[in-house]
Design a protein that fits this description.
By secondary structure, this protein is an alpha/beta fold. It is built from eleven helices and 13 strands. Helix 4 packs antiparallel against helix 5 and helix 7 runs parallel beside helix 9 (253-263). The model is unreliable at 47-53 and 237-248 (pLDDT under 50).
Length: 339
């Protein structure tokens, strides 16, 4: 179906005529000879100068040009048939710890030792892109919690923000309670059965203003299910360099497990990539909530056609207006004597 996105643009159609009527004529800057009896001379000749067209015919080309510009500005488009938009799914926020300890290289990926945050990016990135029909958002937290990406169907952009996260960007400490509180602010307005928070951390709560269990109680009251993931290798399996910094020793598993149980979620211990992938399988078992169905109609823009026609007509008028002058100047340039 053909339609205009901005049909009110056509109200500007009489604008050139109004400007011509209201504004004074611009001075030409050239000397002119005024002849009071020019009309009598034309009457004696019986005709007007043949070089001038009637007024309406001279202005017609500019009227067409103006209408073409208005047509392009009104944004003509061809609107297709309604297509369903996937709105049956979950509202899922991913809260990732980016404190200093996430830089410990005690995880393994394809035979290489990688940092904890690197493993989270590689595995949870695929998990985010696979949430077809879900709104996904991203929270990064350290000493403070920040909303990096709001809830959106654009899962690829969320993965890009996750891939670009760096250790220490939100501070060196771990504010688990503040991360949960920020997630509640974003999820509380969504349908009650679709609110999910996935919390990934490798330590205990060492920062922020909100206690984790207090935040978990508020989450339970708001119907937000929290799936907690404790990441980090066992101390006996971690490299010696990581043991020096206490890798795997600071993880507060009892608190993470209590948060998950209080909100109806589950706790996962991610010692390697296989255990980290278990969270995706569990979330896939959740029943999606039917939300209000919506439809979208694809629109194909057509404004380039009248815009191109206006450009072409402008070029034709420019060349046509300059051509007689060039013909008159050509003989003068050819036979002009050099000094």
């Amino acid at each position: 179906m053909f339609e205009f996105a901005w049909p009110w643009i056509f109200l500007l159609a009489p604008l050139p005529w109004l400007l011509r009527r209201l504004l004074p004529p611009a001075p030409s800057g050239e000397a002119a000879l005024r002849v009071s009896f020019l009309a009598e001379l034309e009457g004696l000749a019986g005709q007007r100068a043949r070089s001038q067209l009637p007024g309406w015919r001279r202005q017609l080309r500019f009227v067409v040009l103006w209408l073409l510009l208005l047509l392009a500005a009104a944004r003509p488009q061809w609107v297709g048939e309604p297509l369903p938009v996937p709105t049956s799914g979950r509202d899922l926020l991913l809260a990732v710890d980016v404190s200093g300890s996430m830089d410990y290289a005690d995880m393994r990926w394809e035979g290489e030792e990688v940092s904890r945050l690197t493993l989270v990016k590689r595995l949870l990135g695929d998990f985010v892109e696979g949430r077809q029909g879900d709104r996904v958002g991203l929270i990064l937290f350290g000493s403070q919690a920040y909303l990096q990406a709001p809830l959106t169907f654009d899962r690829r952009t969320v993965r890009t923000w996750l891939d670009e996260a760096v250790v220490g960007i939100a501070g060196k400490n771990t504010a688990i309670g503040d991360a949960i509180g920020l997630a509640l602010k974003r999820l509380r307005l969504r349908p009650a059965q679709s609110r999910v928070l996935v919390l990934v951390t490798d330590g205990a709560n060492t920062g922020g203003e909100l206690e984790p269990m207090t935040a978990a109680r508020l989450a339970a009251e708001e119907g937000v299910r929290i799936y907690t993931i404790g990441i980090g290798a066992d101390p006996r399996q971690a490299p010696f360099s990581s043991l020096t910094f206490g890798a795997g020793l600071d993880l507060d598993e009892p608190t993470l497990r209590a948060i998950a149980e209080r909100t109806g979620g589950e706790y996962f211990r991610a010692r390697d990539r296989d255990e980290l992938r278990a969270i995706g399988a569990t979330l896939d078992r959740l029943e999606p909530v039917e939300q209000a169905p919506t439809q979208a109609r694809p629109a194909v823009p057509l404004y380039p056609w009248p815009l191109a026609a206006a450009l072409l007509l402008s070029l034709i008028l420019t060349v046509h207006g300059a051509w007689p002058r060039l013909l008159l100047e050509l003989p003068q340039r050819r036979f002009r004597r050099r000094p």
